[in-house]
Design goal:
single chain, alpha/beta, Rossmann fold, five-stranded parallel β-sheet, 23 helices, binds nicotinamide-adenine-dinucleotide, binds (2S)-2-hydroxybutanedioic acid, binds manganese (II) ion, NAD, Malic enzyme, Malic_NAD-bd, metal-binding, NAD(P)-bd_dom_sf
Amino acid sequence: MNSNQTFRVALRDEGIITSPRWNKGTAFTDEERRQFGITGRLPFRVNSLEDQCARVYDQLKTHESDLRKNAFMQSLKAQNWVLYYAFLSKHLKELMPIIYTPTEADAIAQYSHLFRRSEGLFLTLPHQDSMEEDFLHHVKGRDIHLVVCSDAEAILGIGDQGVGISTAKAAVYTLIGGIDPAKTISVTLDVGTNNEDLLKDPLYVGWPHERVRGEVYDKFIDKFVQLVRKYLPHSLLHFEDFGVTNAQRILELYHDQHAVFNDDVQGTGAVTLAALMTAVGVTKTRLADQRIIVFGAGSAGLGITRQLRDAMVKTDNVKREDANKRFWLIDRFGLLKQSLGDKLRKGLDDFVRADDEEELKAFGKEKEVTLLDVVKAVKPTVLIGCSTAPGTFTEEVIKEMAKHCERPIILPLSNPSRLVEVHPHKANEWTNGKALLATGSPFPPAKMPNGKDYNIAECNNALIYPGLGFGAMLSQSRILTDTMIIAGARRLAALAPALKDPDEALLPDFGDSPAVNLEVAVAVAEQAFDEGNAGVPWGKEEVRKRAEEMRWHPIYGTYVYDPHGEV
Ligand SMILES: NC(=O)c1ccc[n+]([C@@H]2O[C@H](COP(=O)([O-])OP(=O)(O)OC[C@H]3O[C@@H](n4cnc5c(N)ncnc54)[C@H](O)[C@@H]3O)[C@@H](O)[C@H]2O)c1
Ligand SMILES: O=C(O)C[C@H](O)C(=O)O
Ligand SMILES: [Mn+2]
């Protein structure tokens, strides 16, 4: 919605007041109140959006806990989209942690108890026979560009929650990426849960059944993806928080059929690549020179590793096999090495180390090679955590790393905050301020030995996925290629404060994320043109102008009643 834009709206009376897309509350003008038959439904005074934001802020302050604030914001979203997004835009940095990570993790964990009103589409396995009908009820006649879905098996680091997350991720697309909320849908794919607490809870609102796997699961997902392909062929399909056995597999299955994107794999890979591009700029080295430990070889760990490897190959001109050797992946059974045999998950082959490698042979085949062992043996320059295991980057590990490395690059990325592998303030203290740090959740600045603040970059995929998605939608690319993602990451890195001042943050601030993501989107769309993937009838030189035009702004337009207008 842009200012001075006029909309022809077909809803009247209660219909327009209860539609979050059109409702303006006290901001309906006298003329609109008359036309839409709502003069008697509103108190006298006409407020500006500005006044409404001030009122919302006063109301928000009356809620003490972050979880209550999250619930309050959720109900605002259900009432009035423009006000919700305008208010959030004004206080972006303060409120991102309320509507997104880390508070959203608690809101999802308590979803059934906080439940007030459903949002988005719920496709549940026992109702799969009516899936097409249910889907069409929700999308028919709508110009949908973006579908965000989740089966909620691996919500952040808190595991199986049965239902949740896609609505928060979709809201961030609008808030940061500028995607019109009317053009997005969020979908819960409910295939059951293995979370015993939820199964026992009489108030659990999802399908109280053991999580379905195998062929039945695959068919259910396929049915959904084929509906998206059939009815929304030009949409971007975003997968969020699928379990590790499904995330990469589903991505690969549909990669050639539709514009699909897995945020935990690709979004996390992209934002981490950007943080490392900046960090190696600070240390004046190349990405391909790093020795990188990835602790937690799940969806995020493998996504990050592949993205970094591909970037080494493409930007530093090293061979793929050589780039593979820059990584040491560690999971529950220690370092991934050949002798682990069946314990190794599929898809990791490129990064499994040989037991007889020079640095490892002292350990022998039987020993589980721990993080500390690897740090001692390998002398890493980069340590990335995506393990969901809090506190695992111990003082001993961090100090050992710092012994061999002037500026250790340490990225404890697990979310929410309480699952972080090391508190960034501790890592800063244990390295005497030498560590280059970024975390998955927001943390306040650390103190440097000279008393100055060190801003901890928030290396969360939300800093880049809205721009990646917007770039793909803008160029109407049928696929989102790795090179498009690298182009987005490079643009993000180019905007990082640390490039100007090495004592500054490794990534742009979330407060600047809307402007930053516009740049990311432009880079991604331009790359789509270069690769011949753009599906729009205009040329590359128009990308920026089109991006600016396509961005949705939370501003009220003027409404005219028209029985044949929009609903
Ligand atoms: N910052 C971000 O943008 C971002 C993005 C995605 C995921 N994450 C976070 O990363 C974490 C992992 O997410 P995921 O989607 O990859 O989950 P996942 O379940 O796919 O992967 C987690 C991996 O860690 C391993 N692991 C668990 N405990 C371990 C331990 N003690 N030592 C070593 N490995 C261990 C598991 O076996 C698994 O392979 C979560 O906390 C999530 O919030 C952060
Ligand atoms: O949701 C987030 O904050 C980032 C990421 O997608 C995650 O799963 O942790
Ligand atoms: Mn996620």
